[in-house]
Automatic annotation (TrEMBL), chain A:
Compartment(s): Cell membrane; Endomembrane system
Function: Part of a membrane-bound complex that couples electron transfer with translocation of ions across the membrane.
Superkingdom in the source lineage: Bacteria
Gene: rnfE
Organism in which the protein naturally occurs: candidate division WOR-1 bacterium RIFOXYC2_FULL_46_14
UniProt GO BP: electron transport chain
Name listed for the protein in its UniProt record: Ion-translocating oxidoreductase complex subunit E
EC assignment: 7.-.-.-
Entry membrane topology: Multi-pass membrane protein
Family statement drawn from the similarity comment of this UniProt entry: Belongs to the NqrDE/RnfAE family.
UniProtKB/TrEMBL annotation, chain B:
Record organism: candidate division WOR-1 bacterium RIFOXYC2_FULL_46_14
EC number of the protein: 7.-.-.-
Protein name (Swiss-Prot/TrEMBL): Ion-translocating oxidoreductase complex subunit A
Any one GO CC term of the record: plasma membrane
Membrane topology: Multi-pass membrane protein
First-level EC class: translocase
UniProtKB/TrEMBL annotation, chain C:
Record family assignment: Belongs to the RnfG family.
Pfam families documented for this protein: FMN_bind
Name of the protein in its database record: Ion-translocating oxidoreductase complex subunit G
Taxonomic placement: Bacteria, Bacillati, Saganbacteria
Subunit structure: The complex is composed of six subunits: RnfA, RnfB, RnfC, RnfD, RnfE and RnfG.
Alphabetized InterPro entries for the sequence: FMN-bd (IPR007329), Ion_transpt_RnfG/RsxG (IPR010209)
Molecular function via GO: electron transfer activity; FMN binding
Length: 196, 195, 161
């Protein structure tokens, strides 16, 4: 099935975060606990899927020369919508994600997919591509969030598994984000070489 | 606003809340451009240049246009478009007027539109309710902090090219581990001058 | 081409205006509910609140004065820490609550923990309210801890008879 292929690609082979190294800023910044990571994943998925959908729907109407400004307008519209929805219905989450919600607008994943995929492909595969990329993003973000929260605070999604006294606080501080993603990438390299 | 407060804003943006190592913004360029010292110097000068001008303009846009006309909901969209247009204008201007400078940082200018630090500084100066002068001190501090971190990182990476690194860690993984150690070092500035 | 661009801008602005108007009321309502629950939390004896002055709320239990709720916002490590303090008629802290903070997760952000906030109960203006004296600061977060202490002191000062 080709549609499934579009879906799968984003999850592992072209995982935006761990493979293509794009959209890194929110991954590091909001992954200090699993709930924030999940919230951010939803916001990115909302924007990415809808912008892929709209760009693909309108790909025949958008003149080639001004496609980038138009993509930016479409993306920033969805970003602002998700920002306000979050503020209205999940105020606590919105406060802890802070400036990173409006910053989704410059997240390279979204503009990148609009330009590289949605602008050239039919609606259904573009939506699938959006879902796949969002899942890949969420997978990377949430697993980093879970690792950091577990090691740094002794809890997962807020459930205390062991006392914070035994946790390494460094993991929820900025250096912990860099070191987690570095080691995760190295592990992925090793796994891949074994398979080959 | 006293000089001391301005210095506090500048210093905290430069080191304590370093945009790359502590606030995690503009990381794509941090890892992408830092492969050579010359590249990172070029990128830094472009960031200093664009960030200062764009935060001045977006501050004015927000406080003199969006707020009086109650159009705050257009903040995200208008800022990104203004920054994109500004980068284009600056590119044209530099090419015509100061070709030397254009040669050294011209190729980095288009990359800056998607550099999230520029947009983030514009947003944060408004979230913190800074005055115009304070937001200038802030953006100069942030861009100087960006330059400091990326140039140091480029020097380390140049050295690291000669080091025997485990196979799985070559390339990006070791770069992230290095960034972790730098970030740890920057955490040490916490509490300096009571900031 | 310019027409297409203008059309996109127009549609986008229209959509955003609609979402903004739609959510504005909800956002304001959420903030109000949150603030009122916080008032009740720091001053459980009171059933009704009236604003007495900027950032000071008078809590009434029927006809009787139950105490005051005072909001302060001292500067912490990475921004303002918004604190609401419930103060009894005798000028003692009943309970304090952190409304908003942007301190470092895992360090300064621990000021929201009940173990830390509990220490302020029963404090009055003549107490030192300082780390190393009568308050145990949070490990690795002296600045945030000191900021909360300063805020509590300021709150007590505000309603000094």
């Amino acid at each position: 099935m080709s549609l499934l292929k579009e879906l799968n690609r984003g999850i592992i082979a072209e995982n935006p975060v761990l493979r293509l190294m794009i959209g890194l800023c929110p991954v590091l910044a909001v992954s200090n606990n699993a709930v924030n990571a999940l919230g951010m994943s939803f916001a990115v998925a909302f924007v990415l899927i809808l912008s892929n959908l709209v760009v693909s729907l309108l790909r025949k109407v958008i003149p080639d020369e001004i496609r980038i400004p138009i993509f930016i307008i479409i993306i920033s519209t969805f970003v602002t919508i998700s920002d306000y929805i979050m503020k209205a219905y999940f105020p606590a989450l919105s406060a802890s994600l802070g400036v990173f919600v409006p910053l989704i607008v410059v997240n390279c994943i979204i503009l990148g997919r609009a330009e590289a995929f949605a602008y050239k492909n039919p609606v259904l595969s573009s939506v699938m591509d959006g879902i796949g990329m969002s899942l890949g993003f969420a997978l990377a973000l949430v697993s980093i969030g879970v690792i950091r929260e577990l090691l740094g605070a002794g809890s997962v999604f807020g459930f205390q598994l062991f006392s914070q006294a035994y946790a390494a606080t460094i993991m929820i501080l900025p250096p912990g984000a860099f070191i987690t993603i570095g080691i995760l990438m190295a592990a992925l390299n090793k796994m891949e070489n074994k398979v080959l | 606003m006293s000089g001391l407060e301005l210095f506090g804003i500048f210093f905290s943006a430069l080191l304590i809340n370093n945009i790359l190592l502590i606030r995690f913004l503009a990381l794509c360029s941090f890892f992408g451009v830092s492969t050579g010292i010359e590249n990172s110097i070029g990128m830094s000068s472009a960031v200093i240049f664009v960030m200062t001008i764009s935060s001045a303009i977006s501050w004015g846009l927000y406080n003199f246009v969006l707020v009086p006309f109650q159009l705050e909901f257009l903040r995200t969209a208008s800022f990104i478009l203004v920054i994109a247009a500004l980068v284009q204008l600056e590119e044209i201007y530099l090419k015509k007027m100061i070709p030397n400078l254009y040669r050294s940082m011209g190729i980095y200018l288009p990359l800056i539109t998607t550099n999230c630090a520029i947009l983030a500084v514009a947003f944060l100066a408004i979230d913190y309710r800074y005055s115009f002068i304070a937001s200038m001190a802030y953006s100069v501090g942030v861009s100087a902090g960006y330059s400091l971190a990326i140039i140091l990182f480029a020097y380390i990476r140049e050295r690291m090219a000669l080091a025997p690194i485990p196979k799985w860690f070559q390339g990006y993984p070791i770069a992230f581990v290095t960034a972790a150690l730098m970030s740890l070092a920057f955490l040490g500035f916490t509490g300096m001058f009571g900031l | 081409m310019g027409l297409v661009l203008a059309l996109f801008c127009l549609v986008s602005a229209g959509l955003l205006a609609w979402v903004y108007v739609f959510t504005k009321g909800i956002i304001a309502e959420q903030a109000r509910i949150k603030f009122e629950t916080s008032l009740k939390e720091v001053l459980p004896q009171a059933s009704a609140f009236t604003m007495e002055a900027e950032s000071i709320y008078r809590g009434m239990d029927g006809e009787r004065l139950a105490g005051y709720a005072v909001s302060v916002a001292p500067r912490g490590y990475s921004g303002k820490i918004a604190i609401l303090a419930g103060v009894s008629v005798e000028g003692k802290i009943i309970k304090i609550k952190i409304l908003e903070q942007t301190e470092t997760a895992g360090l300064g952000a621990n000021v929201i923990k009940p173990e830390f906030l509990r220490q302020f109960v029963e404090k009055k203006i003549s107490d030192p309210i300082e780390p190393k004296k009568d308050i145990q600061a949070i490990t690795g977060a002296t600045i945030s801890s000191r900021a909360v202490c300063r805020g509590v002191k300021e709150a007590l000062e505000k309603i000094k008879p």
